[in-house]
Amino acid sequence: MANDSKDDVDVSPAYQDSLFKHQLSQENPKVLNDLSIFMGGIVESKTVSGKALSALKKNGVIDPTTGALDTTKITKHFANELALLSVHQQRKLVGLLFWFEEELVRWRLLDEEEAEIRHAIELGGEKEDLAVALKAVEVKRAMLPSVRTQNSSLPSYT
């Protein structure tokens, strides 16, 4: 892990990028899977990553059927529910879950923007300008978190 200071619970930009790339390579990038916690740098074992994901599904933080993330399900019992992780790893995991929730909001907004552009294209809008706008959405969607934080002209959803 990049910074294992007991007070540092933020996911490093390198691990954000790692998880982001991993999620984009998945069939449904909006759903965390068995390797996501590993790719986010929380654990050093793929097996433990899968077990942690199972625990998150069991306690409802991740819906077992849809894979939807619900951070409101993180309760005072979280430490006991994820006892397989150290306290520091649990704190890092909570940070990762909230960061990923922000990514989901970002993706939802980009999906809405793309739908609006496609609708305008269907209505016969200026095709060339709309094609450029559609390409811009695709670029924003694929932009790594570390690149977004470096470019202050881009909107931040934090």
Protein model, in words:
There is one protein chain. The chain has helices spanning 13-24, 36-39, 46-58, 78-81, 87-122, 127-142, 145-150. The protein has 158 residues and is mainly α. The radius of gyration is 18 Å and the shape is elongated.
Average of per-residue pLDDT values: 90
Shape: elongated
Count the DSSP helices. Answer: 7
Uncertain stretches of 5 or more adjacent residues = none
Query: What is the N-to-C succession of helices and strands?
Result: HHHHHHH
Quantity of strands, as a count: 0
Strand content bin: under 5%
- Biggest β-sheet strands, sense, barrel: none
Structural class: mainly alpha
End-to-end CA span: 23 Å
Helix content: 55-70%
Radius of gyration: 18 Å
Summarize the model shown.
The protein is 58% helix and 0% strand. It is mostly helical and 158 residues long.
Topology of helices and strands:
Blueprint lengths: L12 H12 L11 H4 L6 H13 L19 H4 L5 H36 L4 H16 L2 H6 L8
Helix pairs in contact: 5-6
